[in-house]
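tl;dr need the bound structure. longer version: we got a ligand (S-adenosylmethionine) that a collaborator sent over and nobodys looked at where it sits. i said id run it. heres the input, straight from their email, havent touched it
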Amino acid sequence: MKENIGKILNLLRQESDYDFLGCSPEMINRRIEMRITATGTANMETYYSYIESHPEECELLMQSLTIKVSSFFRNPLDFEIINRVIGYLMQNKAEQKEPLRIWSAGCASGEEPYSMAILVAELMSLTPCAVEIFATDIDSEVLERARQGIYKTDSLKEVKYGLLNKYFITHEDRFELQPSIREIVNFSFHDQLSNIKVPSMSIYGNFDIVLCRNVMIYYNSRYQVKMQQRLYDSLNLGGYLMLGEAESILERYQGSMKQVAPLSKIYRKNG
Ligand SMILES: C[S@@+](CC[C@H](N)C(=O)[O-])C[C@H]1O[C@@H](n2cnc3c(N)ncnc32)[C@H](O)[C@@H]1O
């Protein structure tokens, strides 16, 4: 297996300036495994033959080796819209005495679920309500970083100054999230392509908001269908699905999922 990984990395080196020496072998292994699943090849050996005969796969593998990138309030317009949605849902949930349930699927190092937690914390004084935020990823290394909640300036560019002061502790070039925000988010390992439909610690689906952003773009259409079906099933009626900028709802859901505003990637499940 090591020999095949070496051969694959040699191919990448010929195609790009990046040699991936800085990446951990476990991470490279996991990412190649992900591409093996995404391409439907059986193992390292058949994947190596596949990559040789499909030059575009080199680019996809390179992207997948660097796809852990995330940032707070990525795509600010969508976060402005989801902020209004959260406000409206919190009011309803408070009246119904039920928790608001949010799932960030493919959360990387936590910027996305923590952005949601900050919005919730800001609204909490207006409409106190129980909130549960689950965040999952297939990569244990990024999940560990997420739990620590320490970030560099790169991922904080969209955070408003007031929020930065209120929710982060500054340590020279790093920013540590306040425990009050970290405690709102429950992180765990979950593969969205496994046969378990929702993260096991969340017990049942019944989510009011599901975010799955910049995850599906790395998969072929067969796997995108599988993922979207699960995301759809995990949502309550009237729940919201938030996708990445380059992702869209599949044709089969266009009748039952309505885009909430032009240019946004937020869809409401109507039935
Ligand atoms: C580019 S990051 C997106 C992070 C965040 N959602 C955002 O948009 O800023 C993609 C993440 O999806 C995760 N991922 C890829 N395939 C997955 C799968 N099958 N199940 C769960 N997570 C997956 C990767 O490990 C990576 O952390």
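gonna send this back to them w/ a short note. The longest strand covers residues 235-243.
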